[in-house]
Amino acid sequence: MSSNIRSGRVWFYTGGHSKTHVKPKMNKTLKYVAWLAVAVIGAAAVGGIALHRGESINALWFVAAAVCVFALAYRFYAAWIAARVLMVDATRATPAERLDNGRDYVPTNKWVVFGHHFAAIAGPGPLVGPTLAAQFGYLPGTLWILVGAVLGGAVQDMVTLFLSTRRNGRSLGQIAREELGPIGGFAALIGTFTIMIILIAVLGLVVVNAMKHSPWATSTVAATIPIAMIVGLYMRLFRPGRVLEASVLGVALLLLSVFGGGWIDHHPCCAGCLIMKPVSGLVGDCLWFCGGHFASLAVAGTA
After folding, report:
1. What is the mean pLDDT of residues 57-86?
2. Are 222 and 253 within 8 A, CB to CB?
3. Residue 271 region, left (φ>0) first, then alpha (ψ -120 to 50), else beta?
4. What is the pLDDT of residues 211-254, one digit of tens each?
């Protein structure tokens, strides 16, 4: 009895003209076992967080729970939405490619787009998450982030970006105007604008309360604005398209700002200038927010 392998399939010849086709069930079984193991590890991690008592807990529980839950959601739930609900077509040109004008529509490296999107959805998370954990415990905050991201935030962002791409990159207000008319579009625009104001206000208060008595944190966050501009100029003017090099440069500068913040925190003159009152801190946070948007313009448009 001889065998021949063609395109991953095994054909067994039994001596005559007939042949028996045996499907590669082993690889499929291993995949099921692997994903089942991921599900078990994730459930055990969430259970460990739920059953833990006390203020201190190992961070590996949270890392394991997040990695397993997001991996399962990406493999099954996100794949189902992309294939069955949105019917994503990878061969379809995006508005940036079809309407490239060097200003509003610019083909951009996918990792740069991912960075913008990740920063937009994850911005308040590292700040609000610890606050929720301190007030209500670890489990509610963890479930809020995991379940909320999988069933709410990630799906909402994915669908909104997909619809915007199918509508030539239009905003949510413009799409609502086309679908609902001028009155409905205006109402949707006002609602979106109001939600953004509330979100920025809450984020601003959380940031101010966290940094108003910490020169180390204030100096480190302030350094992210020039760092973003340097990274954007590096990819735009000096090394276009070198995303990996720019990322390494940005991480190195960010780590340098963290170490420099420690020096500033122990320097009496510099530390005194960065200790803010709540009002001045709120104004400074607004300036930081606006500066961050201007810094993002330095990165936007890089390919």
Report:
1. 89
2. no
3. alpha
4. 777 777 778 888 888 898 898 888 888 888 788 888 899 899 98
Contact indicator for 162, 86 with CB cutoff of 8 Å: yes
| 22 beta partners | 10
pLDDT in tens, 1-59: 444 433 344 333 344 444 444 456 667 788 888 888 888 898 888 888 888 766 677 77
**DSSP class per residue in 118-151:** HHHHHSSHHHHHHHHHHHH-HHHHHHHHHHHIII
3-state class (DSSP) for residue 238: helix
Helices then strands, counting H and E runs in the chain, come out as: 13, 3
Q: Could you please report the per-residue DSSP string of 246-265?
A: HHHHHHHHHHHHHHHHHHHH
The DSSP code sequence of 25-61 is HHHHHHHHHHHHHHHHHHHHHHHHHHH--SS---HHH
What distance in Å separates the CA atoms of residue 184 and residue 193, rounded to the nearest whole number? 14
Measured between alpha carbons, how far is 65 from 61 in angstroms, rounded to an integer?
Answer: 6
In contact, 122 and 153? CB cutoff 8 Å: no
CA gap 94, 105 in Å, rounded: 10
Q: What percent of the chain has pLDDT over 90?
A: 6
Residue 72's pLDDT is: 92
CA atoms of 81 and 6, how far apart (whole Å): 33
